[in-house]
Amino acid sequence: MNDIVLTGDRPTGPLHLGHYFGSLANRVRLQDAYPMYVLIADYQVITDRDLPGEIQRNITDLLLDYLAVGLDPAKVTIFQHSAIPELNQLLLPFLSLVSVAELRRNPTVKDEIAHSSQQAVSGLMFTYPVHQAADILFCKGTLVPVGKDQLPHVEVTRLVARRFNERYGEVFPLPEAMMGERPLLRGLDGGKMSKSRGNAIALSATDDETAALIRKARTDSDRLITFDETRRPGVANLLTLAGLCLGRSPEDLAEEIGYGGAAALKGLATEAVNEFLRPIRKRRAEHTEADVRQLLSEGNERAREQAIITLDEVRAAMGF
Ligand code: TRP
Fold first, then answer.
1. Which of 39, 76, 108, 286 stands the most exposed, by the fewest C-beta atoms within 10 Å?
2. Element (H or E) spanning 149, and its range?
């Protein structure tokens, strides 16, 4: 089978090293092997907040992050929800294929509701996974590289595809989630790495910002550096981070640091991250806001052509 890869991000803030090692590095590899779509999921921003916020700024930054890490717009179609009416229109028939009980059961949605600061849960919070099925199926995506939290959404997509095909005839492939073997990279305070928690190193961070964040990282006072994820999570996390940046094992780095203590560890991690980010920063600086916007509009055009074809097929299958 000829696979098609689709994945995406919500434009809610700059991407960080957790995103890089968790998914961006994998995308850069995949773009050489498959036709690939990367979605800037702008309509998904308003699932867990009332307003889209600095949406244009965030979209531009996301595009710059993509290009900086090496996504190549000649190979990858980068596009956004709000520019593709035909993709969004797939939501209506797709919603008819799932029950309210199924929507309520989605564990990722439940988790997002639990962590949301909104007064009321919107209808979109329950239905966006079906919209996500439209994201994946409009281009007949078959491989969806995502993190564990997205697995329920890929399941919804398979359910929608299967039921559509049963009711109206074979139109959609059943996509598969693709999970990398990602080492867990925590934030510098030991929690989940997340921009909003101020514990993440953005791909756009400067040398000084990186140094300041690592300086504040939680460690301990044992001079002998060892890699022990349960007893020394802060130390282990810095070793993991440095190891990923250097392409070396955290155990090996621990041995090298030996009795250098937290100061030596932080020095080494800062050096490693800054060295790693250097070419990314350089590539980012090669692009202007105007040219990334132009690339997005070209991607939108290509994605839209595909969405028009799929929507026509859907209407014909349904007899509309
Ligand atoms: N929900 C994803 C996230 O929060 C973003 C996303 C939207 C996505 N549509 C998608 C991911 C389709 C994979 C496929 O990160």
1. 286
2. none
pTM of the model: 0.94
Lookup: tokens for 267: 């020095």
Structure confidence at residue 116 as a pLDDT band (50, 70, 90): confident
Q: Which residues contact 45 (CB under 8 A, 6 or more apart)?
A: 10, 11, 12, 52, 53, 55, 58
- For 147, the token pair is 């993190």
10 lines ligand 1 (CB under 6 A): yes
Binding site membership of 41 for ligand 1 (Cβ less than 6 Å) = yes
Ligand 1 centre to CA of 235 (Å) is 32
**201, pLDDT greater than 80:** yes
Output the CA 128–ligand 1 centroid distance in Å.
10
Protein residue with least CA distance to atom 6, ligand 1: 8
* Residue 233, token pair as written in the block: 């999570």
156 lines ligand 1 (CB under 6 A): no
